[in-house]
Amino acid sequence: MLIPRYQGRFAPSPSGPLHAGSMLAALGSWLLARQAGGSWRVRIEDIDPPREIAGMAAAQLATLDAFGLHPDGAVVYQSQRHRRYQQALDTLLAQGLAFECHCSRRALAATGGIHRHCVATRKRPDPAIRLRVADGCQVAFDDAVHGRIVQRVDVEAGDFVLRRSDGLWAYQLAVVVDDAAQGITDVVRGADLLDSTPRQMLLQQALGLPAPAYAHLPLLLGEDGRKLSKSAAALPVDRQHPVRVLAMLWACLGQAALPQEALRSLPHFLEATVAGFRLADVPVQAIPLSAALHNTNSARHA
Ligand code: GLU
Questions:
Q1: Rounded CA gap, 37 and 255, in Å?
Q2: What sign for the dihedral angle of Cα 256, 245, 33, 82?
Q3: 45 lines ligand 1 (CB under 6 A)
Q4: How many whole angstroms separate alpha carbon 68 and alpha carbon 139?
Q5: Minimal CA–CA distance to 90: which of 102, 98, 82, 78?
Q6: Is 194's C-beta closer than 6 angstroms to any atom of ligand 1?
Q7: H/E element, 99
Q8: pLDDT tens, residue by residue, 139-192
Q9: What is the 122 CA–ligand 1 centroid distance (Å)?
C-alpha cells in the first residue's frame, strides 16, 4: 500500500498574537513534519470575523518567520474557502446526515447546550445546521501523546453545529474539509482540541474523507491556572529572542537539554531540535508557564 508523504500543519485563528502556547503547537507540528521529511503547511483560520483582529494574521506569519518556522507552499486562508464548506454541507444535507435546527441557545440550556432533538416550537429565519449524531455513537482513536481516547459523542457533544445561526461556518466543519483538501496526514495541536477530535472524525466518516493521525500537545497555563488563550490577550512571544523562547518551549515539550553549541544561533538551534526531538518524551499534563520559565532561567544560569 502506498503510504502518503507526511503533511503537517499549523492552523492559528487570527484572534490575537501568537503566545507561548500557540508557539508550542507551531514548534511541535513543525518538528514532527521536518523530522519525517514531510511538509509543513500554515492555514489561517479566519472564519469568525467578530473574534478577529485586523492585521493579526500578518503578525502571526511574521512571528513564525522570526522563529525560523517557514511554511511549505502558499498559506491558506479559510475566509476564501466558503464554497468548499458549502459543498460539504450540501452533501451532508442531501444525504440526510445534517439537518436544519431552529432551537435557540436558551431552549438548549436545560440540556447543557447538548442537542439530541429539536425543542423549538416555531421556525426562526436563521436556523443553524447540525450534524445528526446517532444514539450510542462512540468514537475511539489513539492519540500519539494521550493514548487511547474514547468519547460518547451523543452524550458529550450531541448533534453539533456545522453552520451557525449567524451564518458563520463552524470550526469543526471547516477544519475537516481543509485538512482533507490539503492532504494533511498528521494533526499536531494543543490538547484543548482533544475533545473536538471525535466530532471531526465523525464528520470525516460522514464525508468519506480519510482520518489523519493525531497528537495533542500539552497546554501552557497562565498565572491564574487557566490555559493561555489568544483572546484573553496572553503575552505575545518575544520575536527579538527566538532561541530563548524556543529553548523554553523545548523544555515544556519534555525534551532533553541541548548542548550549549545549539544555543549559538537560530539555525543551529532548529537543526539540533529536529535531530533530537522525541515525541515519546512529550508530557501529557498541562504545564504552568511560570514553572517553565523558572526552569529554563535556572538552567541558563547554571
Ligand atoms: N484554529 C485553532 C486555534 O487557533 C486551531 C485549530 C486546529 O489546529 O485544528 O486554536
A1: 20
A2: positive
A3: yes
A4: 37
A5: 98
A6: no
A7: strand 98-101
A8: 999 999 999 999 999 999 999 999 999 999 999 999 999 999 999 999 999 999
A9: 35
